[in-house]
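Q: Predict the bound structure with cytidine-5'-diphosphate.
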Amino acid sequence: MGMKKPEDVVLFKDNKRIDGRKPNEIRPIKIEAGVLYRADGSAYVEWGGNKILAAVYGPREALPKHIQDPRRAIVNARYNMAAFSVEDRKRPGPDRRSIEISKVISEALERVILTEQFPRAAIDVNIEVLDADAGTRCAGLTAAGVALADAGIPMRDIPVACAAGKVEGKVILDLCKEEDNYGEADMPVAIAPLTDEILLLQMDGHLTYDEFEKALDLAIKGCHIVSDMQKKALLKKYEEVLEVE
Ligand code: CDP
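A: Predicted complex:
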């Protein structure tokens, strides 16, 4: 966001975006549930150029004991980018950005998980970004939603996320890397799709109030498209299990 656009980069022309999409079109998405054997639940998501794995471990006893909450489980999402996931090698380990993303995703997931059912427990959600191409927090949260469902963690709903934003004055759905770098606004949104309750909303850049309303509406529509894919991925996994048994 806010990087100076090189002269030869055209973000929007003839109602088409730099990657050929229409303003309200989402990138191609593939979701697979239950891809890891040892994790309690897992998911793999390809979303545009993003490749992301989510693995759930727990509920287990939260340790050390002083971090326990006697009324509910604590949800620890950990977002991590592989060193090879970005153009310039990323220094391994947590940085300001990944700590922030881990925090907002943990808080979003806590809103849908029935944490009161597991006092003193911890639920770990590991999100590993293998290839990054803008929108990784949305793709990561979406993968986490499927992994939690795959782990059988009781939830009010399966959380899902999608971003909207603005390039060259136009409100658009699901920004790609160039749009993220040179655009005017990026707004990731996560919802509980049964009620459209907002679980996460961040904004980088600037929108007028009208643009904000339009972008929020578009992001929620995007979330519903992705939510259908999450459910299909989960159904597919359990259909396969039924066939072999
Ligand atoms: O990924 P997301 O859009 O949720 O978060 P961001 O902070 O807006 O980052 C946008 C994109 O910048 C990421 O998806 C990566 O493709 C890229 N990035 C990078 O190249 N190097 C980093 N250290 C962090 C992000």
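A: Residues 209-244 form the longest helix (36 residues).
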